[in-house]
Each structure stands twice: as structure tokens, then as C-alpha cells.
Amino acid sequence: MSMIRQDAKAPGHLAVLHPMRLHASALPLAERMFNLWTFTALILALAAFLIAPAFAQDATPDDRSIVAILLEWTPTLAGGFAFNVLISILSMAIGTVLGVILGVLQVSPISPIRSIAWLITQFFRNSPWLVLLFYCILLIPFQIEIGDTTIPFPGWIKATIGLSLPVMAYMSEYMRGAILSIPTGQWESAESLGFSRRQIMVNVILPQTVKRVLPSWMNLYAVLTMATPLVSIIGISDVMTLTRAALSAEGRVDLLIPMYLYILCWFFIYCYPISAATRRFERRFAVNT
Amino acid sequence: MELANTLIDWLRPDWFLNLVVFSDNYYRDRYLAGLVTTIQLSVLSIFFSLIVGIIGAAVQGAPSRTLRVLVGAFVAFFRNTPPLVQLYFFFFAIGTVLRITGENGLPQPLVSNFGWAVIALSLFAGALNTEIFRAGIEAVPRSTVEAAEALGYTRLQIYREIVLPLAIRISLPALGTNLVNLVKTTTLAYAIAVPELLYVSAQIWSEDLNVREMMNVLLVSYVGLVAVLVWVLHRWEKALRIPGYGE
Amino acid sequence: MTWTPDQPIVSLKDVHKSFGTVEVLRGVSIDVMKGEVICIIGPSGSGKSTLIRCINALNDIQKGSITVEGLEVNDAKLDKLALRKKVGMVFQQYNLFPHKTALQNVMMAPIKVLRQNRAEVEQRARGLIAKVRLEGKEAAYPGELSGGQQQRVAIARSLAMNPDVMLFDEVTAALDPETVKEVLTTIKDLAAEGMTCILVTHEMGFAREIADCVYFTDRGVIVESGPPATFFDKAQDPRTQQFLSQIL
Questions:
Q1: What is the bridge-based pairing of β-strands C10-19 and C22-32?
Q2: What is the separation, in whole angstroms, between the first and last Cα of chain B?
Q3: Across residues B152-176, what is the average pLDDT?
Q4: Which of A19, A56, C160, C168 has the smallest number of Cβ neighbours within 10 A?
């Protein structure tokens, strides 16, 4: 497709010397299709398609509006959502603690410890979260007895443990990277002052890793929260279980899309601020060495 | 405890041969069929998610602000909502509505559950890919693009010939991580009864009551699949390597 | 082995050190008496930094012996804590802990390693910060201090452990010329008080001013040594002469 203008025949009038001008006719077909109007039309069509069933006349005598039904179910669903959040917070706490320990072990000077820690990290990193959940729900006993005390493991605790395993693996990787990014001069000067390795790790190295790990940690929490609905597959009653129960109780086809969109919005409202904050922290904590 | 027993099992060679998935033809065939389905899901999802990512990243660089906002909304939506709920949304919500009248007069779903799984996974991973490719595109030096503009390339040509090849190489590590996650995410299809590996394994262990065995085989299978993908990505990265670039 | 003041406080005998197959120190012997100030100079790669790090057991040696105040540094069963209490080290890159204030940097080691009383340590730390002429900067974080100020805090931090020997590894190499002087003045005051100092340095003028003995290393061996007067003006070995002519 030539950009040379018709009157550019004399030397010195090559196209590259002129400021670039994109005439509409100069654009190939694909680019013309990608313009504003066609896209807007597509989006409007999609929106109409999604929302239309909400207005469709159904065969049921029930004439409550969709919005009314959603509001009616909101308290129950909110309870379920809170349960998801609870699981995510507990899993994150357990996974973070275990992950920090595992990450520190991954940089241990003792080779066998390093290898085992690495193996554990890789194993749980490469396993699908749902498979780990099944593993825990089926293979963790429903209670263990230590001495005189019996510790019960209800289903949701097993699910929480199951979710904390991949968190542990990811935190281990983040910590390992953060520890290795701290200049060796820090280790040496602390060593010269007589600190033991444990003291150096606790007082000098780990505090400095917090800033470096924070954005990844926050992102991990968002990912974990979005993985909590998986527990509904293994039989734990969470917001997804309640949603599906609500939908089958109402039995209305035109409720399907709005209710799922409703739940999606809840997760969006919870997770989007975390993503935005993560991006802000990433910029602010950009390590300037 | 069960988990300790599990670890000890791995050390016994004769235990491997007694695994039903190896010893029993019927179970082996079913397990392999599940494995094939998982591989199909993975390959199709990877392929379509790459296309979604490339198109999305291209549109995010469009001059029109509205287009950029729309793609931004698409990416934000799929990144900040649970993939399982997205899958349910597609299969149960949209899938139920999207029916055509079949030959026998009864409404049939237009897209099978396998199809919806591919669609949902492709869009989810595609949204993440959009961000990854966008970061890669923005990492291509502005001066290189200006040089191409000065030579008379159209925007589409610049994107296809100059920016995309460089951006892909820059994005490879992050892309690799995302694709590995995609393979692991195919297990979500279990929830809509797609007969992939996890679903088939669950059927086997509910019939044969050998949960521990199946779990271990399952975990090893996935670690193996992921290892294969990582190897493929490594070879691809090596093949694309430009000598002296990015040293 | 107990040490008495008539013996050298730091003694290196025929020290050999290799990194893999590359031999960096090839038989170095130095004796330092208490209260002496010695300077080690030489071209890059001659092994001077490695040498000083070996004294502090940051690197191990393959052959020879290093003794600090009676402690065998090359002994595999060495109590490193005992060594680090006697030897203080200041690095080229200051290496202050960025997440602690200047005062906390100085106080940390005596509290956690020597387990001394916090109030006592704080008083001593403030005194040390005043001694290096940084009064008023106790609450500043390393990021808020200039290079020279950070280096002086690093010196105060090492002094807080009450060492008998101070090692300085090219401590002014990373500083602007204006701030070099303030650090050198601090070291001069230390030497005047009787601290045993071993410096690796490029500052020839400073070496000439405060050193009791100057050592020239090249390719892992001590080529020549002597008091500054004879060393700088009447160098014997041609390698020394060549190096000095390039520097001075």
C-alpha cells in the first residue's frame, strides 16, 4: 500500500521526508474494522443479550422483579461471602508463616535442607489447587489425638489447610527471591559485628524483605480469595453453594445471569481495590539500590 | 497418619506395579482418556488465550480512549473475579439461555460443557495475557517504533513486524508462568462434569476406593504435565533467542 | 595460647588463599604490634581486600596461619564470636542497616551480641556518634545521610563493640573527594588514641601521614614494606617503584 502522493515525482519528495498522514483510505481493512463504532455496537449487543432475559416474560406467576429477588437473597449470600473471606484470611495467615519458614530454609547453607525445601516448594507450586483441596479433604483424618487432647478437623478447616499449601509454596518463592536480592554487604557487615546467622536473618535480612515482598504478597491474597469458591466443589458450604441453592430454589431461568453477575460483582468489588493497591505499592516500593 | 503412610508408599517399588491405573486395562483406558481430555483442554485454551491476549494488547494501544477503557474493563473483570464463578456463569447462566431447538424438538445447548470450559479458560488466561503482552509491548523502545514509522510502516504493520516479535521475547517468562497456571486451572472443568483427568480419577477412586493411590498418581501426572510444558517453553525461548539482545 | 603485649597482636604467617583454581594470596606474612597503624597498598587484584577479610574470618585460608590476640583464626573450631569481639571491620560500601536509624545501627550489636544493658549501650552509642562528629544525626536513617556520614556511622558501629583491632577495607574509595577528608580525620583521631589499625587504602598522602608501616602487595605477595619515609621516597623493588610512579 503506497503512501507516496500522486504529485511526488521530483527528487526530494520521497514519502519518508513528509510528515506521516494516515488517510482513511490508506488504512487496510482490518484496521478500519477496529474502529470505535463497530466496537461500541458489539458491546451494546452483548449487553442487550445479557440483560434481555431479565425482562423476558416467563411462564411463572411470580412477578417479583429480578432486583427484588437479589436483594431478598443478599443476607444469606453475604454470610456465605463472609465465610469465603474468613477462609482466605486463615489460609493466608497459615500459608504466609509456613512460606516464610520454607523460604528461609531454601537459602540455608546446609545442602540437604536446601534441597528438601526446594522440592517441597516446587511440588506444591506445580500441583493444581483443586487437586490439593481434594487431597486434604479426603486424606486428613477427621480428628487427631495428641496425648489426651483430641483436635477435630471439620471440613472447612481441611479446606483451609488445603488452600494454604499453594500459598506456602508461592510465599517460599517470593521470600527466596527477596532474601537473595539483599546485597551481600549486609550479611558481611552483620557477620563482622558478631551476629549469628539466625540473628542476622531475623534482625537484618527479613525486615528488609518485607518491602520487597509486599506487592507480590498482596497479589497472592487476591488470587487466594478468588480461589476460595473451589471449596464448594469439595462439599464445603460457601457463597457458591448458597448461590446454586438459591437458584434452584427460585427455579427461574431469567435469574441465572443476573445472580451470577451479582456474585461476580461482589468478588470484583472486594478484589479490585487490592489489585489497584498492589500496583501502587509496586511503584512506591521499587527498590532503588 | 495417612500422609506419612503415603510417603512411605512411594518408597516401595512393588506398589507402583499394583496401581490399578497401570494394572487394570479398563481403568488405564479411562485414565488415559482423562489425560487426553486434559491435554486437549490445555492446548486449546493456551492457543485461544494467546490470540485473545494479542488482540487485547493491540487494542489497548489503540488511539481511541473508549477502546482502551473497554479492554481495560475486560481485563479488570477477568482478573478480579474467581475463574470458577466465571466458568459457572458461562456454563449455567449463559449456557442455559443459549439453547437452540435440536432435531427432536427439545432445546439443546449450543455449546457443550467442554466448549464452555475452553471459552471460559481462554478468556480468563487471555485477560492475563493481555496485561503480559501489553507490558512486553511497552518495553519495546519507543525509538525502534519511531524508526519504523519513519520508514512508512502502517500501525498494523509496525505491530505485526516489529513490536510483536520483540514483545513476545520480552514477555516469555511471565507468559510461561501464566500458561503453566492455565494447565493447572483446567481442573476447574471438573465442576461442570468435563471428563478431564481429575474427574476421571474421582470416578475411579469412588469405585475402587483407592483414594490415596489415585491422589498420588494424579499429583505426579500434573507435575509431569507441567514439566513437559515448562520444557516446551524452554525450547521455544531458546529458539527465539536473539544473540546479544538483552544481555 | 594467651597473648602478651610484647607479641604481635595480629600475626599472619605464610598465608595462602585460593578462590577455586585462582590463587589470590601466595604466602603473605605480616606482624602488627599493638597500637601500630599499617597501610596495605597495591594494584587491583593484588589480594589486599582478600587479605584483610581473611584476618576477620570472612574468607578462609588454605595454608598458613593467622593469629589475632592469641586466637587462631584459621582454626576450624574457632569461636567466631570471640574473634569478632576483638576485631572491628569497616567496609567500602558502608553496609549500614537501612531499616534502622544511625543510633540503632550503632546500638544493635552490643545489645544483641554482647547482651549489654540497653541504657548503658545507648549512652555509649551517643558518645561514639558525637566522637565521629555526627551529633544530632542519631535519629536519621542511612538513606538520609551522605556517603561520608554513613561511613562515619559505620565506624562508630564497629567501635561500639570495643574492638582491639580495626580493619578498614578501602573505606574512602566510594566517597566524593570532599567527604573523604572527614572520614580520614576520624580514622586519624582513632589512631592517635592508640587503636591498632590495618588499612587497605589508595590514599597515599594519608598513608604517609599516619602509618607506622606501609606494605605493598602485588599478585598475592608482599613485595616491599617499610616505614613511610623510606617506603615512599626510597622504594627498592622495581615493581614498587613502577606502582608509586603511576600513583604519585
A1: antiparallel
A2: 51
A3: 84
A4: A19
Residue C71 belongs to domain with CATH number: 3.40.50.300
In a domain, C105, yes or no: yes
Query: What total of structural domains would you count in chain C?
Result: 1
Mutation to test the A interface, candidates B38, B54, B88, B119, most A Cβ within 10 Å: B88
Domains annotated for chain A, with CATH where assigned, are 65-284 (1.10.3720.10)
Q: Which of B64, B152, B138 is nearest to A32 (CA)?
A: B64
Q: In this structure, is residue C172 part of a structural domain?
A: yes
Q: Along chain C (248 residues), what's the average pLDDT of each consecutive run of 10 residues?
A: 85 92 92 93 87 90 91 84 90 88 92 91 94 92 91 93 93 88 92 94 88 91 89 85 82
Domain interval for residue C155: 10-247
pTM: 0.80
- Whether residue C117 is contained in a domain is answered as yes
Pick among B6, B42, B94, B97 to test the A interface (most A CBs inside 10 A): B97
Q: What is the residue-averaged pLDDT of chain B? A: 84
Determine whether the interchain pair C93/A203 forms a contact, defined as Cβ–Cβ distance below 8 Å: no
Helices (H), C176-236: 177-192, 204-210, 228-233
The SS3 call for residue A150 is strand
Express as a percent the part of chain A with pLDDT over 70.
77
* pLDDT tens digits, B205-218: 888 777 888 888 88
Does a structural domain hold residue C5?
A: no
Bridge partner residues of B109 (DSSP): B99
* Non-local CB neighbours of A182 within 8 Å, separated by 6+ positions: A205, A208, A209
Q: Residues C25-52: pLDDT tens digits?
A: 999 999 999 999 999 998 888 889 899 9
- Closest-CA distance, B103 to chain A, in angstroms, reads 23
Cβ-Cβ contacts under 8 Å, C154 against chain A? 189
Q: Residue B91 carries which DSSP code? A: I
Beta strands in A147-284 (DSSP E): 149-152
Q: Within an 8 Å CB–CB cutoff, is residue B189 touching chain A?
A: no
Assess contact for C29 and C73: CB atoms under 8 A.
no
> Which of A63-72, A240-249, A265-274 bottoms out in mean pLDDT, i.e. has the lowest?
A63-72
* Burial annotation B29-56 (CB, 10 A radius, 16+ → b, else e): ebbeebbebbbebbebbbebbbebbbbb
**Mean pLDDT of all residues belonging to chain A:** 82
